[in-house]
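Person: I have long wanted to understand how a fold can be written as tokens. Underneath my words sits a plain record pairing an amino acid chain with its backbone structure tokens. Those tokens are not coordinates but codes from a learned vocabulary of shapes. I should like you to check that the lines agree and flag anything odd. The protein I mean follows directly.
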Amino acid sequence: MMNYGVNELVEIVKEKREWLSELLQIHSALLLRGFGVSTAQELARVVEAFGWEDMEYVGTSSRTKVVDRVYTANDVPLDRFINFHHEMALTKKLTSKIFFFCFQPSPEGGETSIVPSYIIVEKMEEKLPEFMAKLSELGFIFRLKTPKERDPTTIVIKTWKRFLNTEDEVEAEKRAMELFSCSSINFNKNGTAEMVYGPMSPIKEFGGRKVWFQTISGYSTKGIEMGINFGDGSDFPVEAIDAYKQVLNENCIDLRWQKGDILLLDNLSVQHARRPGKPPRSIFVSICK
């Protein structure tokens, strides 16, 4: 069996990138395994070979830049489940592709799970047509509350000052409106802030296909960090949240990482999640316009 290395992978990508892009469009995910990629610098070379424009991460989670185009994945403690979502789904400028690279797999758990978002729409329309009709009519409101101080144990790690890179409330509101699909931001006396998005539809259409783009899983209308309601302020029915979670669990695929794996996702058609794992799991990411 012929052994391929990083140099060979870079050349293959450069030579076959149109074909690889077509495969990604068809299947929404590509796994590159067995090429001996071992560093963030080597990942950056592979990413560059695809020829897509770089995109800087913008969000409430914490990530550390490793090298140009490469960051650590979400720095939330490994024992926490990070629910299914599209990367940077609340930004006005959407990222179309995301690379995940396994620098060090978890000794137990730590899988990255993916699910095609068009399937979520189809299954929810089958299971709960009345809920889907109401959601289409009213949309939903998403609320995100930032912490008073940086809290590495939560999904929303950054304060609003760190998140929006300013201590001025007027400037922060301006940036929230410019960068995100944010309808308002409320600053609280205790140093927290609440960003309100919507009413909006959680479903978008790309390439003629409806996809469930704004997640409703893992949130609560009574939650501290995040909350959801219908556009008229009424609560989501519990059975809708339960059905949504069931659809995710029944249609997802868990990737058991091997060292050196590169997973390329079409971020406009696939949601991803992180299963709880154990140290020293280390995954790097690179995102593209």
